[in-house]
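Q: My labmate handed me this sequence with no annotations at all. I'd like to see what the chain might look like in three dimensions before we decide whether it's worth expressing. Could you predict it?
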Amino acid sequence: MASFGEAQPVWPPMYRPNPYDAMVFTESGANGQHYYAMDSVGHVFCVDSPTACLQEAINYVLSKPIGGKVYIRAGDYYLAPFTGGQSQNVVSATIPYNAALIVEGDGDATRIHLPQNNSSNTAWLFGWGWNGTAPYTRKSKLSNIAFINDVNVGRYATSVLVTSASTNDSSGLEVDSVSVYDIQGTGLWFTFWINNLYDVTFSRYRFFSINSNTPRTAVLFDSVTHGKVVNSFIFSKNGGWNAIENGEGSILVDSTEIYGTFSTIFQFDETDFRSYINVTNSIIGMNTYSTQGAQGYNMGSAAPLIYNYGNGTVNFTMTSSQVFWPNITYNAGGASAPANILIRNTIVDASGCPPYAIAITNPGSGSVKMEIVGSWIGLNTGFAPCGDRLINLNGANAIFKFKNNIVFHNATSGPWMSGVGPNTIAEIEDNYIYEIGASNGYAIPSQLIHFGNSSSGGLLKLINNTFTWTATPSNSTTFYLTYNPNSSGTYYMPTIIMKGNAFNFPTSNAAFGGFVGSAGATTANPSASFVDLDNTFNLSGINLPYPSTTTPAVPSSGTAQSNTYPYPVEAYVSGGSATAVQVTRGGSTYTVWSSSTATAIPPLLVRLEPGDSITITYSTAPSWTWVPAKYIG
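A: Here is what I predict for the chain of 633 residues:
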């Protein structure tokens, strides 16, 4: 190995890497494979140690006032086993703020095999750090290199790159046209761990794993002020922890494809502040396999889509994208921090018999604001019926909005929606919903909304939606708008407002069970369900009965009688000797009939919404009859 300043041979011009400042290359001869590093005029300053040649080439260019370029020529580079040191970096670089380090290769023809890790911890091939001061910092770059994980079988991983900065978030970094091929051996950990930087771009990044020892993540951003993953491809045949991980900072994922059975796709790690991931024009998952898969491998993806691992504030948006195979699930991880999630203009095809297409799981005390707008949502669409409910909010402390979507729900069990808890506000509005599932000859779902809360509270608004059952059941199917699936005990339903909806039930073998049903448990507050007159029930082939109504006894003079039914009623009052008939609604009382002297009440129709009460002041009780306000049919 040579040192700077020693007289070295000048290599022929064909080997001179201008406009690069240093070149690392390998040659095979009669005596085996050799490695070299030389400067831009052909002076060789390193021989036969690929690790040392990479290190010395980087040291050489960083000795220049503004840094420079290291060119790694095509070839296979096998590095010596790593035993530790240099902060667990095989090759280290300390980059002044006023300098830039550029390391480039010949694309996939430049193949660096990640070395055996014999140390006592995770290691990285490259460790780049920034320090010093400057009016601005220059952008460093790693490009056109393939990193192969096929050598290391030690306890700990050897990953590709870790970064750090000694003072403020510093410098920009571009990782362009870099490939990682995870073939065998010890699984990768944080393949790229990017710390304390701003303006970081991964472009045309290719991560391809077929390793049975699954990777932790393809890229981790940690305290990166502005980061991007664009025009990239991430695939893991056997899954892994996650595809993209973010600590504090803002990350844009654009025009990127993510495939494989990761445990989750986007993981948030921040524990004390807030993180942002914004996804646009991307594809997550694909139900494609065999000759159409990734080299024959299934390209299905993960659930959940989003995971709060660090109990920080989550901000996630997805627009104009396609999500195949996974579902839109936010795993809150029991977080006390809030989450803000927006899905817009996206295709979501939750296939593979999922338990739901949209969900909030493991909710904590942190509020979740989730909005899904203008999207195409399917559950097992294009396959035989399979799977369960479309939406499950799991009683989360949430404001959930689902608006202007088209839905194809192809399940074999479960309701359409569940999990509206005492601290949940859910608004389902202006959606076209097609129920195409069936099971054992029954149309699915036959119970639209499931409830079963241990306390009162919560609100579900079902406004101006069109529900259409397309399956024709061969067995008689009884339909309920709301249903308590518990067989015993007493439970509460949230306040449920249904207004302006159209329910197009099957054309045969269908019956209406009622507005509120139960598997045997008691519903403590059945009047919490309000079904407005503006709803339309398609009668084609279905005989919907009048709701069940019993006329109560006329109470004593001046005593209010409430409408406890979950639908409006009409009270027909007449006769007796009375002076006033009043209705109380929402705390306000108004008079519908009065007389200065006690007299018989003329035939009078009084409409009572759920929760309204009627009070009659009389000396002789009148007679009355209560009937449903509208024929439900």
